[in-house]
Amino acid sequence: MRIINIQRPCPSFSFLLLAWSILAIISFTSNHMLIIDYCSNSQEVMDALLFKSTIIHSLIWLIVSLIIIVIGLSFRDLYFQLRELSIHDSLTGLYNSYYMTINYKKLYLSCLRQSSLMSILLINIDDFRAYNDTNGHIAGDECLIKVANILKKVCKRESDFLCRYGGAEFVVVLSFTDREGAELLANDILSATNKANIKHPKSSVADHITLSIGIVANGNCVMSNEAAIHTADLALQAAKKSGKNTYVVYS
What sections of the chain are H helices per DSSP? Predict the structure, then answer.
């Protein structure tokens, strides 16, 4: 899965640190040039107090600049860590809905500029509430992690991205992919999930975990990710009504 950069990290803050450092160096250099110039042109010995205060002033500039640089670098590392946490689901490690909100439009416009198609798969675990009620929430979390790992193995293209949209729902956004390609991937996902044979004694479909998938493909993908998900959800509900453990393409 390709990691799409959200934004360039703290450019204004980095520029501020650089500007401050340059200013400190200029101040330190200019003060010493003044000292040299004064000493060379004056007929009298430079006043000791003036010399001392100038040196102290320059040193303070340098010390403060170094402190700000150290603090700035620490905050920059913290920024990177917080950014990673903000775009990933803490349970599965997949991207989250916030990441999709930010990057969906970028991917849509990229496909539009290249006159290419894109597709969306909205995936839901069948009867997941019954699984939670029977096995407990810890087992439910483990099930979500297992399904996420299955999706990671099947969705291998770097041009696509996979995220946990919320609860027991996952989204795969496929760039440069038509309806046929989306259906092939949906079949692979269903097959891999059935083969994993994650036991689900309360399932209304089988004795193991199954998935239902709603697909939006070709010209039905729109610029708004909320509208695209809504359309995919209509197809997902149709898949549920068709008996689950299947996919339906919105048309």
Answer: 11-41, 48-87, 97-113, 128-135, 137-154, 179-196, 225-241
**161-166, strands of its sheet edge to edge:** 161-166, 169-175, 118-125, 211-216, 247-249
pLDDT in tens, 159-168: 888 999 999 9
Q: Are 157 and 119 in contact (CB under 8 A)?
A: no
Question: Do both 101 and 223 map to the same domain?
Answer: yes
Task: Report yes or no on 92 lying in a domain.
Answer: no
pTM of the model: 0.71
Residue where one domain finishes, among candidates 63, 86, 109: 86
Distances (CA, A) of 72 to 9, 18, 23, 82: 13, 11, 16, 15
* 104 lies in the same domain as 80: no
Tokens standing for residue 157 = 């293209």
Reading the block at residue 84, the tokens are 């990673």
Higher pLDDT, 159 or 250: 250
Of 26-40, 73-87, 138-152, the least confident: 26-40
- CA dist., res. 12 & res. 34, Å (int): 32
Count of domains observed in the chain: 2
What single DSSP character describes residue 205? S
Q: Where a domain ends, among 66, 86, 106?
A: 86
CB atoms inside a 10 Å sphere around CB 67? 10
